[in-house]
Amino acid sequence: MTEKMTLALIYGSARQGRFCDTVASWLIRELETSDVFSLTIIDPVRMKSARGDKSAGPAEWMERKVAEADAFIVITPEYNHGYPAALKEMIDAVYEPWHAKPVAFVSYGGASGGIRAVEQLRQVFGELHAVTLRDGISFAKAWSKFDAAGNLYKPEEMRAPLFLMIDRLTWWARTLKYARKATPYNEIAA
Ligand SMILES: Cc1cc2nc3c(=O)[nH]c(=O)nc-3n(C[C@H](O)[C@H](O)[C@H](O)COP(=O)(O)O)c2cc1C
């Protein structure tokens, strides 16, 4: 059996009472039985609490989390036509560990479903030598799509786009993992 790759779910919101937890919990339920990926979570609330951790400050914590991951899904809301500052703080905390790794997006918000936040994030990840996926999931009026227990009213509708995104993320994760091993990315240009 081939070893599982590590997929990091990056929470975009640090707001108290955030809807991010509802979307992330749905995603975790869909992916936790994956044969391809084991899941890990990168949460700005956890990064903040690492400030008080003497063994690893926020940057070291983030460095380790990004370095150990083979692929990422950013779960982001839209704030004023952009993405949250807490997400940018986490992304900017490290540089090289992002290189030559794939990033997919699950976005949510009001009418736009967070897609304006995602388009801005593509620019940011381009600068970090990461590869962003065309395929993503977007929840417009997200709060109307989930019941009070956090379950989607129409889970089947989301599975086809979600697993198409995951299949393509798997392709990129495998391909880039192999390529990074064959030729370390930082060795191709001095
Ligand atoms: C400061 C702020 C700005 C927002 N701006 C937008 C926006 O520009 N477009 C949109 O579709 N929704 C917007 N919303 C709605 C959020 O996307 C929605 O409330 C979402 O659930 C917030 O995510 P969170 O609860 O995980 O923090 C905004 C919400 C906040 C708090």
From TrEMBL:
Q: Return the InterPro entries for the record.
A: Flavoprotein-like_sf (IPR029039), FMN_Rdtase-like_dom (IPR005025), NAD(P)H-dep_reductase (IPR050712)
- Ranges where the NADPH-dependent FMN reductase-like domain occurs: 5-142
GO molecular function terms attached to this record: FMN binding; oxidoreductase activity
A Pfam short name: FMN_red
- One CC-aspect GO term: cytosol
Coiled coil start-end: none
Question: What is the official name of this protein in its record?
Answer: NADPH-dependent FMN reductase-like domain-containing protein
